[in-house]
Amino acid sequence: MIAVDEASSLASLVTSTDDPAARDCKNYRAVAQNLNVRFLGPERSAAVGPVYVAYRRFGPLDLLAPLTGLQRPLVLVIGIGCTMSDWTPRLLRALAADREVIIFDNAGIGASTIASDGIPAAADYFRFQAQTVAGLIAAIGLSQPDILGWSLGAKVALHVAVYHGDAVRKVISAAGSAGGTGSSTAVIDAVSHMSVAARLGRAGALLERPNNIRAEKAVMPVDVPEVSEIRAQVAAEVEYHKGDGIVPLLPRVTNPTLVVTASEDITNPPSNQGPIVAGIPGSVLVTFPGCGHLALFQEVDTFVGLVNNFTAAAGAFTPQPDQFYTCGADDVMLQTRNLR
Question: By the 8 A CB rule, do 16 and 207 touch?
């Protein structure tokens, strides 16, 4: 396990472009474009308990589009060591084509600050983040939006479903984990015998930013987390992989839930998705073959199409496998066996 006091070098992840890191998104085919991000609008703020949350909200680019037929707003929760500026413009623009999208800095990261007397213990980190997300939803006047979390953000989204299920409608967990000792800590374990910077580079890195992704993000507003902020997230991850995590609590989730994984993800591998799918009644699993931890950035059109179909479904959602993804619990169980 990575020692928390060694995490100061985690800041090097922000600019990591080691070839091994690119391996975990080897099929990323997007060409960096000169994208205009004015559609993001201004950075706003909301007071939620001890947290001053920085966020942005934006909707369809076509202001003349009819307001009828739009999908429910979608709240996005970003991953470890990231701010809301780490979402790619292409993904945001595609998700916002027919809905309002809300992005924000997680509590204690970037521009979202926590009062000194409100900072949570590492063991309470994810529940605290979930409470903040639910509070933000209420503070900005949303009524049961859908929520999509990626990586650490997926863990937060699962906590929202467990503890604040009434605050959201549908839940999308992309590259997440239910934690506990039975959950794979592939990246953290893989980096246990070398310097932190080298460990995370060779393990695929937690941010996994090859040059093409970094080029696309270069047009996003500057919003970089401090080393101490990332250290707090690492401490939380260490605690999250103790005991049972939230596995015993998943059966209480009643929100329709879509679980997305990728066959080449070494950060939160397919084996981490089994307990989520098994624990949440009626949850649906989709696997992107040949993709890594950044599958949602690799296959933007397909991923957004999947999200749109899931959020628009009036009843039970049954995705049909196509050339980009496969579906079903059998698929994740097969991959679980292969990873052991």
Answer: yes
CATH architecture of the domain with residue range 4-339: 3-Layer(aba) Sandwich (3.40)
**Rounded distance between C-alpha atoms, residue 333 and residue 320, angstroms:** 18
Task: Please compute the mean of the pLDDT values over residues 124-153 and round it to a whole number.
Answer: 97
pLDDT at 216: 60
pTM over 0.70: yes
Residue 107 to residue 116: CA distance in whole angstroms: 12
Q: Is 254 helix (H, G, I), strand (E, B) or coil?
A: coil
> Is residue 327 within a helix (H) or strand (E), and if so which, with residue range?
strand 326-327
Picking from 257, 228, 259, the residue whose alpha carbon sits closest to that of residue 329 is 259
| Single-letter code of the amino acid located at 87 | W
Q: How many CB atoms lie within 10 A of CB 314?
A: 5
Helices (H), 203-312: 211-217, 227-240, 274-279, 295-298, 300-312
